[in-house]
Amino acid sequence: MKFQSSKLANNSSRMKSTYRRAKGLSLLSLSATLLLDQTKAFSTFQQFSRQSHVSQINTLHRRLEHRQFSRLYANLPNDPQEMTREFLTSLKVKELKDKIKALNTDVKISQLKLKADCVDYLYNYYQENNADISDTSDGNMASSSISKEPVKRKSRGMPPLESSVNVGTSINEEKPILTSPKDIIFEEVFQRYPPVRSLQNVLEGGAKSEELLNDDELAPHMHPSVYKSFSGLGEMDVRQKYHPMLKDMTSSDLDLITVGTASCVPGVTRGVSCTALRLQWRRNNNMKQQKGNKGNDPVTGGIWIFDCGESTQLQIQRTGSIRPGKISKIFVTHAHGDHSFGLPGLMCIMGQDRDRDGPPLEIYGPEGLRTWLRTCIRYSVSRIVPPYRVHEIMDIPMAPEWGQGRMRNGRYYYQTDFRNKQQQNRRKVWGTQGLAGEDPVSWISRAPMINLERSEQFGEIDGGRDIYPVYNHPKCVDGAPIWEIEDEGDVRVYAAPMSHGVPCVGYVVDEQNKPGRLRSDLVEPIAKKNIKALKESGMKTPMKIMATIKDLPKGGSYTFPDGTVVKQEEVVEPPRKGRKVVICGDTADSRAIAGLAQGADVLVHEATNAFLSGIDKDTSKAETRRDAQIHGHSTPSIAGEFAKEIGAKRLVMNHFSSRYKGDQSLESMSIMTRIEQEAIKASGLSEDKVVAAWDFMIMPVPQN
Predict the structure, then answer these.
(1) Is the pLDDT of residue 195 over 60?
(2) How far apart are CA 674 and CA 612, in angstroms?
(3) Residue 548's closest CA among 560, 537, 536?
(4) Which of these, 73, 138, 195, 424, has the minimum number of CB atoms within 10 Å of its CB?
């Protein structure tokens, strides 16, 4: 209700009420101005007491209630001189930001990234305000002569990964200050990826796009159209250069490339499941010669693809690390769309860049894949696909912890009490549930009945195999079967079942041991001394004798013309152990592949969901783990535990929920760093052995 000042002046009782209300408001005002000296606080009280217009009092009252000054400053020191850094540091980040908002300055809270920035701003504000109070008689804080511009955060430079600046220590002061968990993880990201700190500093300084793109440090990781964040792909990704696992790695003849790292559906920052192995060594087998290959050298390894989710063909076109025409094998773990929908589209792209007279594309996957692929290609009349053949993995059982529901409709559900029984030494062994014929309407049961014959007009050639399980393999675990997928002499591929809601497998790529290196420093001087004699004996290229010595059988020897005897064990190093790469499909438990995976050089394991304290509300780590397993998936802890169980040397996590972005923003990288920390704790591996993968990450697999 609004009153006019003339009526208010004639109504003494209302004036008394107004005075009492103003007196009450003065207490609120007094609590809001405890930062000022007593002289200013008293003048503010008098000002409110003299207000005679009720509408002005109501307006000020609402303003004070909105800012909640009394609540915000209830715990402030009585003396402004006591407003020290220690006191401000003891407050929470939210409290600091609320106090900054209450100051009613022009500062943007978003510019104050860290807790230390908030502390610096408030401290400087109070220092300047306290110095100017003696010159100000007005009680309105907005009329203070303090600069309202935000205090620019000083550049903290680019410390190396082994920084001398401790997390939680103010750059301006030597004594440590308290920091929030968010500040700590941001600082870890800054130390791990120095250009991220530099980018944050220059953006806050108002740098223009031209300045950023001319910066020698930042420009390699940026795209002209997106200059406010890093957007480089593959080798231009800032993580590729600075991540602890990758920064010190040298090139190798075997690379692992994560083409897609998301689950369910592709997004702006992540494609769905696709992992590539780029084999670059000279193959020692009897593979067919590629058309146009000069000489009699065998075919090089090519590229093997594991899973081919929706939009994989787009992902591959975005990177120069994978050429579609070089893909020689595709392995599918299970039928879900985020692992198979991209297969027909990728084959169409491959057909445009592939010699149709060359070796066929070899495709491996669970039974039913052959008929499904025939249907897709025939329905879309895709004659452009390259020659291919499908090898089906037969009789993949469901894990014993999965059972059909009461409806018995062919759908399986995870039994939450299974692991408890397992801990009580009542572990169930793998059986034959879920095989073709059990559910008469399932695809694997109906596919053999579909009369759709192979047709070379649509790319499929003869030679596709049905690969049946082996139950007495020495690497079997708990009765789970093993499939011997491929044996190419120098490389063998195996498969074992995963614990998922549909038949699913994981693959093991096992490189055979390689011959030891020849110690040329010992053999070459002897060979050079005998060059003339070797030529006289009919050898056109005497130095080729070194290859002959390297290929000597164990215990063999060679005698040079001058009588020097060279023994194989003295000049040839011991055989080098082959590498092992394990790529699991979707799984809540990977125990069935543990026998094959022991001592893996690289374990690629899904980590769909994670519990992040401070972000995930109304849940817990145990509940997150249980929910992931119910849906047939894993957490970073599960992935880390399995890596520890098999003694893996490196852990690569993928198949992340869409809630985890894959870009190079500070927020995204801080979350993925926390996911890595959870896996590090569970696996016992160091931070340079664990990575939460991003799209187009290239990881060389070093020789043993």
Answers:
(1) yes
(2) 8
(3) 560
(4) 424
Tell me the pLDDT of the chain averaged across its residues. Answer: 79
- Please state, in angstroms and as integers, the Cα–Cα distance from residue 378 to each residue in 333, 340, 344, 617, following that order: 23, 17, 11, 49
- 124: which residues sit within 8 A by CB, 6+ positions away? 151
- Top-confidence residue, 438 or 381: 381
Q: Which two tokens stand for residue 457?
A: 């007009």
**Torsion sign (Cα): 96, 98, 102, 105:** positive
DSSP 441-506: TSHHHHGGGS-----GGGTB-S---EE--BSS-TT--TT--BEEEEE-SSEEEEEEE--SSS--EE
Q: Which residue type, as a one-letter code, is found at position 367?
A: E
Cβ(292)–Cβ(355) under 8 Å? yes
Tens of pLDDT, residue by residue over 359-382, are 999 999 999 999 999 999 999 999
pLDDT for res 229: 60
Half-sphere exposure of 276 (CA within 13 A, CB side): 29
The torsion angles phi and psi of 487, rounded to 5 degrees, stand at: -135, 110
How far apart are the C-alpha atoms of 670 and 668, rounded to whole Å? Answer: 5
Cβ–Cβ under 8 Å, residues 620 and 609: no
High-pLDDT (> 90) share of the chain, %: 49
Q: Is 617 exposed, middle or buried (0-12, 13-18, 19+ CB in 10 A)?
A: exposed
CB 333 within 8 A of CB 496: no
Distance from C-alpha of 396 to C-alpha of 443, rounded to nearest angstrom: 14
Q: Which of 404, 353, 396, 644 is nearest to 503 (CA)?
A: 396
d(CA 329, CA 312): 15
Which has more pLDDT, 626 or 72?
Answer: 626
d(CA 681, CA 676): 9
DSSP string of 613-660? Answer: TTTS-S--HHHHHHHHHHTT---HHHHHHHHHHHT-S-EEEE-B-TTS
The most confident of the ranges 126-130, 254-258, 438-442, 517-521 is 254-258
Please give the helix or strand (H or E) that residue 388 lies within, else none.
strand 388-393
Q: Is the pLDDT of residue 135 over 70?
A: no
Q: Is the pLDDT of residue 23 over 70?
A: no
Q: Residues 663, 656: contact at Cβ < 8 Å?
A: no
